[in-house]
Amino acid sequence: MAIPESQLDTWSHQGSITQSSTTYATVKRALEADNTKYATKNFEVYLQGSYCNDTNIYAESDVDVVIQLNSTFHYDLSALSASESASFEAAYPSAAEYRYSDFKADVLTALQKSFGVGDVSSGNKAIKVKANGSRRNADVVVTTDFRRYSAFANSWSAQAERGICLFASGGERIVNYPKQHSQQCTIKHKATNRWYKPMVRILKNMRGKLVEKGSIKSGAAPSYFIEGLMFNVPNDRFGTSYSATFVAAMNWLLQARRNDLVCANGQFYLVRDNSSSCWPCQDCDRFLNAVADLWNNWN
After folding, report:
1. How far separated are the first and last CA of the chain, in Å rounded?
2. CA dist., res. 91 & res. 153, Å (int)
3. Whole-angstrom distance, CA of residue 64 vs CA of residue 216
C-alpha cells in the first residue's frame, strides 16, 4: 500500500521557525559583540542548513550558524598553470598572521563568555552551543574564505569560485559552498513551481521513520545530501500531487547513474566514495531502497 496523500501533505509542512530565528539572533549577537578578540577583523555571520533553506521539519532542532573570516583565506591552485601559480605566490608571498586556529579559539572564547563554559564545547567540525530555555541547540561552524582559482594573472583580475574552509579536529581540511547551495535550492524551488522544498521535507520525514524502524542508521542520510538528491531530479517530474511527484522522482533516481549526480552547489559530485564532500555510495543506495520499501509497504 502506498503512503496516503494526506500523510505526505503533513510531512511536507515546514517546521517551527520562531525558536530557530530567536536562537540565530542570540548566537549572532554573541558572535558580533564588540569585545571579541576578532571584532576588528573582516568577518560575517549567516545561517546555513535546513533553517536557511526552508527545508526544516518539526523533528529538527539544531540551528547551523557560520562565522566566516574574510581577512584570511585558504585556496586551491590545482587548476592554474605554473606561471599563474607563480603569479599567485608573488601576490601573496607570506602566510596570514591571524590563522584559522586563532580565529576558532577566539570564537570559542566569545561564545563561552556569552553562554557559559558549561553550555559551549568544541566538537569535531563545529562549536556546540547547548539548548537553554527558549534557545535551541546551535552548531557554530568557524570558517575562513576559500578560493578555488581558475585563472590568476594578478590579484585584481583573478577568477575564483568562493566558498568556505574549515579544519576538523584531526586536521582535515573541509571545503564547502553554502551560499551557492542555498541560492541553487531557491532557484530549483521556483523552477519546480514550489514543489522542490516540500518534497525535500517529505523525504526527511521518511528518513526519520526509517531510522525509527532501524532500516538505516542515524546520520546515514544527512539533510544536505537529501536536498542534493532532489535537486538532480528533472523539473518536469515535479507537480500534480505529492504522490505523483514522489513516484516520478523515485523512478528517475532509482534508474539514474548516481555517480553522475551533483551537489546543489554545483561544485562537487553528490554520490562518491572516499570524499568528505560526497555521500558514500552504499549509504545513498540503502536510503533510496529503504524509502522505496517504506512507500510500497506502508502499514
Report:
1. 7
2. 10
3. 24
> Is the CA virtual torsion 50, 218, 66, 17 positive or negative?
positive
Q: Give the C-alpha distances (Å, rounded to integers) separating 238 from 8, 53, 74, 230.
A: 14, 18, 39, 10
Containing structural domain, residue 251: 181-296
Contact predicate 144/72, CB 8 Å: yes
| Residue-level pLDDT at 105 | 97
pLDDT digits 0-9 by tens, 155-200: 899 999 999 999 999 999 999 999 999 999 999 999 999 999 999 9
Structural contact between residues 166 and 174, judged by C-beta atoms closer than 8 angstroms: yes
What pairs with residue 64 in β-bridges?
48, 139
The SS3 call for residue 181 is helix
Provide the number of structural domains found in the chain. 2
The residues pairing with 47 across neighbouring beta strands, listed in sequence order, are 65
Query: Do residues 139 and 126 make contact, with C-beta atoms less than 8 angstroms apart?
Result: yes
pLDDT at residue 1 greater than cutoff 90: no
Whether residue 291 sits in one domain with residue 226: yes
34 and 169 belong to one structural domain: yes
* Beta-carbon-side half-sphere exposure of residue 25 (alpha carbons within 13 Å): 7
Residue 68 phi/psi, 5-degree rounding, is: -115, 120
